Structures are given as structure tokens and as C-alpha cells.
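Late entry, evening session. Most of the bench is empty. Finally got around to the prediction I had been postponing all week. Sequence below, unchanged from the version circulated by S.P.
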Amino acid sequence: MSQCEKRSGFTLMEIMIVVLIIGILASLAIAAFARARQNTQNTCLINDLRVACDAFELYVMENKNYPPDGLPSVIPPGMADPLSHVAWTAPTPVGGQWDWDYLQFGYKAGVSIYFGAAMNDSRMIEIDRKIDDGDLTTGRFRRRSQGYIYIIDF
């Protein structure tokens, strides 16, 4: 090969830089997708919580009383139709189980989320900021033993 001829192609250093840039972009995209997924799950939980609370309020208007206290993931008696738009027996969008609390935890009535693996106070505070006061010790959405409760009736 003479001195005038040039090789075409990329050097090892150029390839390494391109791979590094692609890796950085991929890590940024993965983090953004994870945040978007969590925001979607939080929004789904808030929507399901509002639908469930409306269902229990409708029940009390029609029956003059709330249904009896229930177990996690068990649909309270008479609530199958009103809760048909909430996957009550499935895990909540953020993990954990739905739970109906009547005369529990010092409140008359509330829809609870019984602990799940993905649940933590920082995530639940983020949800609380969207639906209440951002403080899990005050307002309608609060921490309770082994979960969180949205209080329908104090």
C-alpha cells in the first residue's frame, strides 16, 4: 500500500465513542420510561380510588348505610355492580390490594390500599399531593397500619 492510499472505515476509538453515546442515550430513555410508567400507574390508582369512593357513596345513598367491613381483595356484600369498573380483586396499579374499611382505624368509612411490595411513603406522598394535601398524616388520604386509606367519612 502506498502512502497516497487511505483506508476507509472507522477507527476503534470512533466506534467506542459512538457506542458510549448510544449507551448514554439508552440510559436516559430507560429512566424516562420508568418515570412515565410510574406516573401512569399513579394516575390509574387515583382514578380507581375515585371510582371506588363514588361507588361506596352511591351505595350509602341507596341503602342508608355502608356495607360491612371487608377483607383485602374481597368485594364487600352488595358492591359487585357498583365496583364493576374497579379491578377490586386484582392488585392495585401501584401494588398492594384494595380493602374496604368500615369503622376501622378511627374512621367511619374509607377505601384502603393494603401494603404492596412497590409501595413506599415517597410514592404515596406524590399521589397524596395530587389528590389531597401532600401529608400522609392529615387530610383524606393518610397512612394507616399496613397501608394507606382514603377516608370517605370521618
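Two things to note before I forget:
The first helix runs from residue 12 to 63.
The helical segments are 12-63, 121-131.
Will write this up properly tomorrow.
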